[in-house]
Amino acid sequence: MKESTCIFCKIAAGEIPSKTIYEDENFRVILDISPATKGHALILPKEHYANLYELPDEMAGKVMLLAKRLAAHMTEALGCDGFNLVQNNGEVAGQTVFHFHLHLIPRYQGDGNEDKICWNHLELSQEELDKIHQLLILTKLP
Ligand code: AMP
Ligand code: ZN
Questions:
Q1: Distance CA 142, CA 139 (A)
Q2: Is the CB of 17 inside a 6 Å radius of any atom of ligand 1?
Q3: DSSP string, 61-112
Q4: In tens digits, what is the pLDDT along the chain, a chain of 142 residues?
Q5: Contacts 24+ apart (CB under 8 A), 134-138
Q6: Distance 70 CA to ligand 2 centre (A)
Q7: Ion ligand 2: residues, Cβ under 5 Å
Q8: What is the whole-number distance in angstroms between the Cα of residue 105 and the centre of ligand 2?
Q9: What pLDDT, on the 0 to 100 scale, is given for residue 1?
Q10: DSSP code at position 28
Q11: Do the beta carbons of residue 57 and residue 68 sit within 8 Å?
């Protein structure tokens, strides 16, 4: 399904021009319009899924394989020194476009973003840690 008001649906379908670096039947990969670093790209599924929770398992597998292959290609082509995969879900997590996308971010020594992709560290008590641990233990995947 496509969403008629979704900009990434339109870009993925080729209705809005983009700097596409790769395309196949399931995905379009474009350069980010406001890149964190040189070569920052986004993997967009051609179908509309708002976020990771909506992404079907089969597509989740395909997106990670594509990211792995593209990371290798981009690293060779750009000569970058490292690589971040970033994927935001929900406003609180920094998502601004509500069509699933995976950021491919080449990293360079001295790129000025060393302190950006990070978070403050919580100081949790042993009790709080144990509580969370108990809450999250899975014996079988849902
Ligand atoms: P997020 O904050 O994870 O939702 O990321 C959205 C990303 O989409 C941002 O990095 C934006 O710069 C990028 N973006 C928004 N509109 C466009 C567009 N028309 N073409 C390319 N990238 C875009
Ligand atoms: Zn969409």
A1: 9
A2: no
A3: HHHHHHHHHHHHHHHHHH--SEEEEE---SGGGT--S-S--EEEEEE-TT-S
A4: 678 899 999 999 999 999 999 999 999 999 999 999 999 999 999 999 999 999 999 999 999 999 999 999 999 999 999 999 999 999 999 999 999 999 999 999 999 998 888 889 999 999 999 999 999 999 999 8
A5: none
A6: 22
A7: 3, 6, 8-9, 48, 99
A8: 21
A9: 67
A10: E
A11: no
3-state secondary structure of 7: helix
Mutate to test the pocket of ligand 1, among 7, 33, 43 (most ligand atoms within 8 A of CB): 33
Contact 40, 31 (CB under 8 A): yes
Testing ligand 1's pocket by substitution, the residue of 88, 97, 101, 104 carrying the most ligand atoms inside 8 A of its CB is 97
